[in-house]
Design a protein that fits this description.
The chain folds into three domains: 3-58; 77-152, Cytochrome Bc1 Complex, Chain D, domain 2 (Orthogonal Bundle); 164-257, Orthogonal Bundle (Cytochrome Bc1 Complex, Chain D, domain 2). The protein is mainly α. A two-stranded antiparallel sheet has the order 1-2. The protein has eleven helices and two strands.
Length: 303
């Protein structure tokens, strides 16, 4: 708030302090006319003060970090970061009690891009649980923030660039079933973990939901594999080459678009649901058929 705003507030406060004693004296001397007039003046002054407070509250200047001159809508990635991210992560990504540090992470650009594009960041309160949602920024703003955050780690890895034409579908299926299906399920719809590391600094629980992959973009899948957000492990190039990542992404997209031949997918939860249907529905029909045959034979026997 500027010096002019502070001066106006001091003037209003002094006026209120001078009129309140007068209103009290007027009420004691003549509760009918002079007291009513004083109360009306005091009420009018209160309304003016409330209006002034509301006006100046909506027109106060936001905090501008050192070195940033813009006071309007953020333009650069640094301005966006300082406005929406620095409270938890620190003005240089050094971390605070409200959020982890962003320095020392080789895949920092990929992690930042993933968290922003999947709507997991920013959060309104450091105690909030990080959840999947729509992104809070346009794509151009996300790119600016990612570029600025990338300056925290000089020499860090760039964003992954998936190329589906370089992926092998059969190899992708083998890698996915061996390394990803345990958490994301055999059909890619996600699942739950009984234990795992917390996805927010203040969270303390033992169960975690693993998101599905059927709506993820190739870029998001590649970034998640390289950066390891939340409970997901990091898969560096020594574990999965770029060709392996492309193959896994291609298989995930294949699961999303494959033809089911007109049959129901049973929620795409994999062989467990199919086995349950076989046992409950199939066995139930067999029991009903056996009972019907037995009753029919019994009725046809001569008594």
């Amino acid at each position: 708030m500027g010096a002019v705003d502070a001066g106006l507030f001091r003037g209003l406060r002094g006026l209120v302090h001078s009129l309140v004693p007068r209103a009290r004296r007027a009420l004691r001397a003549d509760p009918s006319r002079r007291g009513a007039r004083a109360l009306r003046r005091l009420a009018a002054l209160g309304l003016i003060a409330l209006g002034a407070c509301g006006f100046f509250t909506g027109h106060t200047r936001r905090y501008v970090p050192p070195g940033i001159q813009s006071v309007g809508q953020p333009v650069s990635g640094q301005e966006w970061f300082q406005r929406d991210c620095a409270f938890c992560h620190g003005n240089q990504g050094q971390g605070t009690p409200n959020g982890p540090a962003l320095t020392g992470h080789e895949q920092l650009p990929a992690l930042t891009d993933f968290m922003l594009r999947t709507g997991r960041m920013p959060i309104a309160d450091p105690k909030d649980v990080v959840r999947l949602g729509p992104p809070a920024y346009p794509s151009a703003v996300i790119s600016k923030i990612v570029a600025y955050v990338g300056t925290f780690n000089e020499g860090g890895n760039a964003l992954p660039q998936p190329d589906l034409t370089a992926g092998n579908l059969a190899n992708g299926q083998e890698l996915f079933q061996a390394n990803c299906a345990a958490c994301h399920s055999a059909t890619g719809i996600g699942g739950t973990l009984a234990e795992g590391k917390a996805v927010s600094a203040s969270e303390n629980r033992t169960g975690f939901q693993i998101p599905g992959l059927l709506k993820s973009t190739p870029q998001e899948i590649a970034e998640a594999m390289r950066a390891g957000p939340g409970t997901m492990p990091v898969f560096p190039k020594t574990t999965f080459s770029d060709a392996d990542v492309n193959s896994i992404i291609r298989y995930v997209l294949f699961m999303r678009t494959q033809n089911r031949g007109g049959a129901t997918d049973l929620g795409r939860v994999g062989p467990v649901a199919e086995g349950a249907v076989a046992w409950i529905v199939g066995l139930g029909l067999l029991m009903f058929l056996a009972r019907w045959i037995g009753r029919t034979v019994h009725e046809k026997k001569p008594h």
